[in-house]
Amino acid sequence: MGKKDYLKDEIKHIDIKSFDSTEIIESMSDMSFTARETAKAAELLNMMISDKDCTIILCIAGSSSAGGCMQVYVDMVRHNMVDVIVATGASIVDMDFFEALGFKHYKGSSQVDDRKLREVFIDRIYDTYIDEEQLQICDETIRKIADDLGTGVYSSREFIREMGRYLVSEAKKSDSLIQAAYEKGVPIFCPAFSDSSAGFGLVKHQVENPESHVSIDSVKDLRELTSIKIKSEITGLFMVGGGVPKNIAQDTVVCAEVLGHSVSMHKYAVQITVADVRDGGCSGSTLKEAASWGKVDTGHEQMVYAEASSVLPLMVSYVYHKADWQKRVQRQWSKIFEPLLQGKVEGI
Amino acid sequence: MGKKDYLKDEIKHIDIKSFDSTEIIESMSDMSFTARETAKAAELLNMMISDKDCTIILCIAGSSSAGGCMQVYVDMVRHNMVDVIVATGASIVDMDFFEALGFKHYKGSSQVDDRKLREVFIDRIYDTYIDEEQLQICDETIRKIADDLGTGVYSSREFIREMGRYLVSEAKKSDSLIQAAYEKGVPIFCPAFSDSSAGFGLVKHQVENPESHVSIDSVKDLRELTSIKIKSEITGLFMVGGGVPKNIAQDTVVCAEVLGHSVSMHKYAVQITVADVRDGGCSGSTLKEAASWGKVDTGHEQMVYAEASSVLPLMVSYVYHKADWQKRVQRQWSKIFEPLLQGKVEGI
Amino acid sequence: MGKKDYLKDEIKHIDIKSFDSTEIIESMSDMSFTARETAKAAELLNMMISDKDCTIILCIAGSSSAGGCMQVYVDMVRHNMVDVIVATGASIVDMDFFEALGFKHYKGSSQVDDRKLREVFIDRIYDTYIDEEQLQICDETIRKIADDLGTGVYSSREFIREMGRYLVSEAKKSDSLIQAAYEKGVPIFCPAFSDSSAGFGLVKHQVENPESHVSIDSVKDLRELTSIKIKSEITGLFMVGGGVPKNIAQDTVVCAEVLGHSVSMHKYAVQITVADVRDGGCSGSTLKEAASWGKVDTGHEQMVYAEASSVLPLMVSYVYHKADWQKRVQRQWSKIFEPLLQGKVEGI
Amino acid sequence: MGKKDYLKDEIKHIDIKSFDSTEIIESMSDMSFTARETAKAAELLNMMISDKDCTIILCIAGSSSAGGCMQVYVDMVRHNMVDVIVATGASIVDMDFFEALGFKHYKGSSQVDDRKLREVFIDRIYDTYIDEEQLQICDETIRKIADDLGTGVYSSREFIREMGRYLVSEAKKSDSLIQAAYEKGVPIFCPAFSDSSAGFGLVKHQVENPESHVSIDSVKDLRELTSIKIKSEITGLFMVGGGVPKNIAQDTVVCAEVLGHSVSMHKYAVQITVADVRDGGCSGSTLKEAASWGKVDTGHEQMVYAEASSVLPLMVSYVYHKADWQKRVQRQWSKIFEPLLQGKVEGI
Fold first, then answer.
1. DSSP for A74-92?
2. I want to staple B186 with a disulfide (CB 3.0 to 4.6 A). Which of A294, B181, D64, D219 is the partner?
């Protein structure tokens, strides 16, 4: 089989506006187990949206973007359900930016001989395929953006903002998360930015420009994210997967305190995950455990133990059709960083 | 209950030298399921050690260090089983550095009211407790090290090396992983360094020194790690947990290729994890899946689906008593970075 | 807190007729991970329904009936999507029969002190409560039915048929699965019938009637179930959970062969489960593994790794609204057993 | 590949007497997560053994016997650590009786084309293979035992006792669990006995003897098991896997109460499982949840979330070498059933 034989059926991202899950979610709220968790989580997301003082931080880890939820996130940004995004590099660069450049994910099989995929340069994400040669173009585009940016030490947010600016003129697919966030003033943070296709492009940029180049300072990420926490006061976390995004978004409460600011814990928190709680890892740790750390309030929290593709669309469709987001004021947190010189963070 | 009532029983780190698991591992190799996986993984680790050309990269994510495996890692370094470490910030700073400063983890319960823990400033890691006030001293120590380091853009490896230097004179517990690695020339990378207690100290350092300060460049981490891959040629991954360490260590193969170096895939790979494969996340993805990406060779790989505390000590005790590590030459990869000026990476 | 304080919010069983999941399932078929599994499984269920020669065997293990899916199963029977049911005793007696007698399940919490529940005789099923005193009435009703039935050795199917007959006149809630199946000629098998509330009633019946009483012969269950397999030829399995129902329904293929009948493997198979594959247990074993045993054909099988409450309603709503079940002829397998004397099984 | 190519490497059952895990278990008791759970569970098993009034009920579900733990169970019986066994039919018939007849399990791969296995009649249990033609001999032997037994309604215990008697003269491998239990007076119950290779043999027996034959009454199983609970007063459960054995062993407390006997809850309970708690199924339900049902005391219970092959040998080796079992008096519960006519159960 050649590459084309594997890459035939495109992943199509679910459109949560095209169906109304209200009846389903409301029914689920009177059931048990994952159904009730899902309904409670959807209600909590809507509570965050209805709380006019609440900044909503969307955390994304894992491969839900590749697997058909990419448009869900875009719709959340476009419809004012999200104010800040903290994500893995893969979600933002390898998946979202990749599709913005015109490339696609494909339906595949988890029961395949990976050596055969290797021969034709197809990369596998469980039951999903991508063309590795297209991913290299993604790396290369990152390199070019870095070359054009000018020497300096940047937060990942600053760099991703440049990626948004690039897409405004160059995108093949205009409805990417990066571009939507750029246009709506929603900052995107990838605190482990190099751990992605971006890393390859940036390393190449640095090697080719050994004396003066772009650096990505993850301390600055935490600093900027914490400054939003300090300014916002009331915050809610909507987390798909765990990993670094979950941990660092929660950490902003503690970081603010370290800086001498008395801030409240995250008032709302939802996490969708399949991670196990029992190894003590952050990804699967309960939000009650986070309460012991002083990070998350216990009043409004819900874990949903499910693979995101099966429950996230139901939850966001419900919230979309509730339409409380229409009354929300856009926060545009990106603006607080704009007047500043590089290296400074407003507020802290 | 007061804080002292919760913090009574210290976690004691298992000493894999004090018992010999050879008989158990050999028996397990003739069983099925997790037992056979465990035995195969132990054999693969010993194969890496016996392959005189192989650089062994230990990847650590999750809370195994807090949960009693800290000395396992130290023993691996002290007995020449590991050449490079890639870890989460929490493993290195919140757990290892924390204990090096004289603090402890304590046996707790996962069935506890977290609000009560909050009242007495105890942080919970599943069934394990720590004193949050001691953790703040850890943050503060990081800040001091940053203050002393001098303005610049550093890799996490460079900063952790400074932490090692600090511990040589200041450690309360001399047998920390950071100090052992410092003394043995084993570089430690935390590509998401700010996602830890270190982040708090470093943010405070930057806020107090807004014009000129320490930055941690995660691109430089990937650059340095890739330079080791390029120089080493043959490599093996021994991964406890997944997350950023697993992904970025695997990525060095691709990164080397992006830089125009033709390197081989990781020849050996072992991962211990409880992560689920079915959400497409990197943490739970099989090593066969990594083969489709051209990162891991399919010849010598083994996933062990288990919580690390129950199998890791058996595996390393087996390898320790095999004693093939005694014939291994120390690689001391730290040395390749030493003569260089900050900002340059040797070799690439 | 008294019992009434715990038993306030009733579980309401989801009505898959009240919403149309077609758009969602069709969208999910172009996604990845659990979403695509769910869509494929829904399509397979519809294929079974559209195959006019196919007998559909619904297998139920776990607590989905208690947790809000009870009406889903009733609707499947009422709308001709199911010809045979194989279930755990708990699903049929403790949950379905229990509600038929007028009792309810209640929304509870998984984070509760079970000793307090014990004090007020509330039994917990993860986040769901029931009144133990009501369950005792359920036991007692089983005893009465046994007392009235007359001495003999019965299959669980025969006994459950008597329960259906009882409910026709005595049910408080007429739309139970037992009664619907009774009325539609759908046999229900519980091969581990004593492992439920029924067991308590039947043991009491036997102890009170030591010389001559009702016995439940699980060999007869397998015999009867196999006779359906032999007569039906083409069969499909729709399995919620694993356990004994999954195993014994699969076993009918082998059992038919042992009896000298050459039958085909189950042509279609779907399983929804959260069970792990890696311990070699039947509950989590893949349907491909079942193919090695000659039980399930590999052409049309789908595992869905999810907790049933979150995906089952979507799947069955889709199939309901496809309406292919309207063209299906009722099989009424119960009838083949009716003219027979106790102890004989028609056909084998 | 022919059948012989697949069936080359025999599973060898681990001998917990050949190594001493005391040091490991004691170290694990000072760690966290699964390690500490394992150590606590081992200590609880030893507490049961040291409690001179405690009857120990070993429950076995899943494939641990096939996967290399078969001798662990035999050693528990031979060394007086177990008084009653409740198991799945597969564990007792397809695995233990199968090997007693001289057949073997083989090391295989979970990554295999099951259609190829089908062609050569090899059955797969995750990564383990057996010869289906040998399994048919197992079925056939059950049929012969049934033919010889004489018409009647038996508990599974009674039938398995006949299997033990058969093995005394006919076994190819004398150290089977069935034979050891037979010789030591340890009753074995399989409340879903037909759900195994035994089912095939028994169905054939019934079909060939339609008028008068052996029936297996699962009510009688629960009745007999409950009579032991009533007589024993203090009981401990040691459960590997969940399923019917876990549920029905727990149920004896309630069943005794239904019969008007006031008995105590199971005083000790340990379960090793990989089952998920969140679907409300019995297999994964916590022992605290069982406390709400009045089945298990909360004082001495421990869940171990692990695949049994990796932790069970460590636990039992520890208990073996503690040697407290040497002081234990054999209970020989089988004897209470011996003087009785078929159909009666002593005591209730």
1. HHHHHTT--SEEEE-HIII
2. B181
In tens, the pLDDT along C265-315 reads 999 999 999 999 989 999 999 999 999 999 999 899 999 999 999 999 999
Averaged pLDDT, A257-261 = 96
Instruction: Inform me whether the C-beta atom of residue A278 falls under 8 Å from chain D C-beta atoms.
Output: yes
Task: Give me the DSSP letters along A291-321.
Answer: HHTTSEEEEEEEEEES-HHHHHHHHHHHHHH
pLDDT at C338: 82
| DSSP 8-state symbol, B173 | S
Q: At what angle do helices C132-149 and C156-170 cross, to 10 degrees?
A: 110
Q: What is the ipTM of this complex?
A: 0.96
> DSSP H helical segments within chain D, as ranges?
3-6, 22-28, 33-50, 70-78, 89, 98-100, 114-119, 132-149, 156-170, 177-184, 197-208, 218-232, 243-258, 287-292, 308-322
pLDDT per residue over A215-236, tens digit each?
999 999 999 999 999 999 899 9
**No. of helices (H) and no. of strands (E), chain A:** 15, 11
pTM of the model: 0.97
Q: Rounded to a whole number, what is the distance in Å from the CA of A22 to chain B's nearest CA?
A: 25
Q: What is the pLDDT of residues C3-49, one digit of tens each?
A: 999 999 999 999 999 999 999 999 999 999 999 999 999 999 999 99
Q: Which of A32, A280, A305 shows the shortest C-beta gap to D32?
A: A280
CB of D292 less than 8 A from some CB of C = yes
Q: Which long-range contacts (CB under 8 A, 24 or more apart) does C145-151 make?
A: C145/C201, C146/C201, C146/C202, C146/C205, C146/C213, C146/C214, C147/C205, C147/C208, C147/C209, C149/C214, C150/C214, C151/C209, C151/C212, C151/C213, C151/C214
Give chains near D: 3+ CB pairs under 8 A. A, B, C
Chain-chain contact of D30 with B21 (C-beta, under 8 angstroms): no
Check whether A348 has a pLDDT greater than 70: no
Paired tokens of A11: 């992943």
Residues of C in Cβ contact (< 8 Å) with B32: 280
Helix H or strand E segment including D268: strand D266-273
B74 contact A CB<8A = no
| C-alpha–C-alpha distance, residues A272 and A45, integer Å | 12
* CB of B33 less than 8 A from some CB of A: no
Nearest CA distance, D330 vs chain C (angstrom): 28
Chains touching chain B at 3 or more Cβ pairs under 8 angstroms?
Answer: A, C, D
With cut-offs at 50, 70 and 90, classify the pLDDT of residue B1.
confident
Q: Which of C14, C23, C306 lies closest to A19 in CB terms? A: C23
* Shortest Cα distance, chain B CAs vs residue D16, angstroms: 9
C24 to chain A: closest CA residue: A19
The per-residue pLDDT for B341 is 44
Mutate to test the interface with C, among D131, D138, D258 (most CBs of C within 10 A): D258
> Catalytic: C246?
no
Q: Touching check for C293 and chain B: CB below 8 Å?
A: no
Q: Is the pLDDT of residue B42 over 80?
A: yes
Instruction: Kindly determine whether residue B33 and residue C305, on different chains, have CB atoms separated by under 8 Å.
Output: no
% of chain B surpassing 90 pLDDT = 94
CB of C306 within 8 Å of a chain A CB? The answer is yes
